[in-house]
Each structure stands twice: as C-alpha cells, then as structure tokens.
Amino acid sequence: PGLETVINALDFERIAERTISKKTWAFYSSADTDCYTRDRNKEFFSRIWWRPRLLRDVHTVDTSSQILGHDVGLPLFVSPAAMARMVHPEGEKDIARGCIANRIPQGVSTNASFPIDEIIASVPKDAKHPFFFQLYVNKDRSKSEALLKHVRSLGVDTVFVTVDAPTPGKREADERVKADEGLSTPMSGAQAKNDKKGGGLGRVMGGYIAPDFTWDEFKWLRKHWDGKIVAKGVQCWQDAKMCADAGLDGVLLSNHGGRNLDCSPPAIMTLLECQLNCPTIFSQLEVFVDGGVRRGSDILKCMCLGATAVGMGRPFLYAVNYGQEGVEHFIEILKSELATAMALVGITDLSQCHPGLVSTLDVDHL
Ligand code: FNR
C-alpha cells in the first residue's frame, strides 16, 4: 500500500506483518515466552486517563523539547534495535536520514546491521545529528573498552548501557522460524539463522554479552567513557534511584519490549512507581521510557508523569519498511498526534506537562 494510506503506527505494523519475510517478522515481533509484557506494554497506556483543562488558548502548540542537551522536534528517540537491514537494505542508515528533519536522536545497537561509522556517515556532517550508542557489555571487557573508545572518537556523546539482558529471553516465534535465506548478520558474518540447539536469532547474536556486569562496574565504565551514561532496562524505583545515586545522566525505564522477562512491568507503571515513591529521582537525572509507545498521546502521558522523552523500537523497524520516507512520515504522524493531544488537554508547550493532567485511578494500587 502507498505511504499516503498509512496514518498511524499500527498501519505500519500490519503492513510489515504482511510484507516482510517470515524470519524478519518473527525476530522483530517476538517477545519472551507468553508475550504478556509485550502486549500489556501497549495496552497499559489505555489505563491512564486524561484530566483535560479547557478553555485555554491553544492556537499555537509547540512540541519541541530537549534530550540530554540536544534540541529535538518532539521528545522522542529511536530505541536501539538490532538488525534493521533485515527489513530494508538501507536499514539503520535510512532510519538516521529519516530522523534528521525533527532531530530525533537514534540509538544505535551494538548489534546494528552496519558498523556505527557507516550509520553516522550516512547523514551530512553539518546536520550535527545526535546518535546514542547502545552498549552490551562484553564478557571480555577489553573489547568493550576498545569499542567505547572508537565510538567516542566518532563524536558520539552518550552511551546507553543495557542492563536488563544478562541473558536473552526465550522468544518462541523467533525459535520456530529457522532462517532467512540470503540474509547475513554482519556481526558474525553468519547467515541470519538459528543455532543447532534451537536458540533464536536473539540468542545467536547475544553470546558475547556479560552476565556478570554489576553496579560496581559503572566506575569502570566512567573510566572508559567521558560522555553521558544512561542505564537502559530499569524496572523498579529502587534501581532507578541507584542509577541516580551512581551519578548516571539518565535512566531508561524499559522491559526491552517484553523480549527478555515476561511479566516485567510496563515501563509507564515503573514511571508511576518512581513518581509515587521517589520523586527526587526526576531532579537527579533524566528519566526515559520505552515499550509499547505507539501514539503521540502515549508520549504526552509519559511526559505528564515526569519523563524527559520516550523511545520506540519496533515502530521504527516497521516504518523503515518504506525506507527514509517511511521514517519521516512516521515521525510527522507522531508529531501531529502529540500536538493534537496537547491542544486537547489544554497545553501549548511541553514544559506545562504535570501529573495533574492525567488520572491514574484506574491503575491498581502500587
Ligand atoms: C530490541 N531492543 C534492543 N535493546 C537493546 O538494548 N539492544 C538491542 O540490540 C536491542 N535489539 C532489539 C531488536 C529488536 C528487533 C527489538 C524489537 C528490540 C529493545 C529496544 O531497544 C526497546 O527497548 C524496545 O523495542 C521497546 O519496545 P517497543 O517500542 O518495541 O514496543
């Protein structure tokens, strides 16, 4: 279908399900075991209700904001997701190009399908486009050290360290579909296929990830990275507080799109938990959220509950099915949905977001 018929994130997803290869769909859409978390991530947003304030002048609405010192057209970033080339030959490069117009920062996975050098080089230098590097800490720390040094030399100022994946989850859809002919994983040089024990692509690619990275090692990380550090994958307020006290620059509340531990909480529930139990976190570091965000109004709900910005993973993979143009179109859709939601709840600027604009009475006692 033509791009002009695509009017929301779900349209992109449905088209992807019909048009991309079986293995790619299985790898992207899959999640741990029974997929409760993946599905609830999205559903949970419907349990946060608005408390709109009316009769304000909402003639002009401004969606612009800031993320870790970068000006952005809306408070959104691309969550790092492996292997965007499985859906489109230009994968992560077209995601990058599609993000330029609204200055949306792109999280680049350690398991991206192009070397990060090539992804960064795919946008004009004078665009000064922000990239965040996602680090899976290697069992062999010296490999991570060399990688960090290299990435920093490319001008990247922020690393997202993924902390929720000491081992990958059991993604059964990915396990069932064995291989995509002709697709290779650049990280290993091997074909995109499962291993002999039946482990899916996630497991095949993640063999090097350290299962013994602990809090103490943020000191090691600081030694090898003089930019900003964000912990990705935090799932309760106590760990968020520990990130703040460890002096990190940000925390991404996330359950990895439900891909690692089924029945981990939707991130907006963790956000709410932080608001209720430890609101000082929000003045210590920037708090981000991802998982199940699909609408501009979802973005606004997170902002009202104290988030600095939100990330999206799968939606960008489904949008880049249409290449750069698809990504641009998708971001414009979200921006327009966000502006509409802002006007309807009665604000013109994101600095006016506050918890009083939402009702969480429908959320079980935390
Ligand atoms: C991911 N995610 C992920 N996270 C990470 O830290 N490193 C990675 O390499 C990947 N790879 C990856 C691949 C695919 C196919 C998906 C769908 C996800 C998780 C990602 O960053 C993010 O947390 C979730 O995708 C957010 O959920 P939604 O937006 O997909 O619902």
From TrEMBL:
Oligomer status and interactors: Homotetramer.
Top-level enzyme category: oxidoreductase
Catalytic activity: (S)-lactate + 2 Fe(III)-[cytochrome c] = 2 Fe(II)-[cytochrome c] + pyruvate + 2 H(+)
Key word DNA damage present: no
Organism field: Cladosporium halotolerans
Main location: mitochondrion
Bias (Basic and acidic residues) ranges: 170-181
Highest rank taxon of the organism: Eukaryota
Protein's recorded name: L-lactate dehydrogenase (cytochrome)
Parent-record interval covered: 106 to 471 of 497
Gene Ontology MF: a single term: metal ion binding
Cofactor(s) required, per the database record: FMN; heme b
UniProt keyword annotations, A-Z: Flavoprotein, FMN, Heme, Iron, Metal-binding, Mitochondrion, Oxidoreductase, Transit peptide, Transport
FMN hydroxy acid dehydrogenase domain boundaries: 1-363
Record's subcellular location: Mitochondrion intermembrane space
A GO CC term attached to the entry: mitochondrial intermembrane space
Coiled coil: none
The protein's Enzyme Commission number: 1.1.2.3
Region (Disordered): 170-196
Record flagged with keyword Iron: yes
Family per record: In the C-terminal section; belongs to the FMN-dependent alpha-hydroxy acid dehydrogenase family.
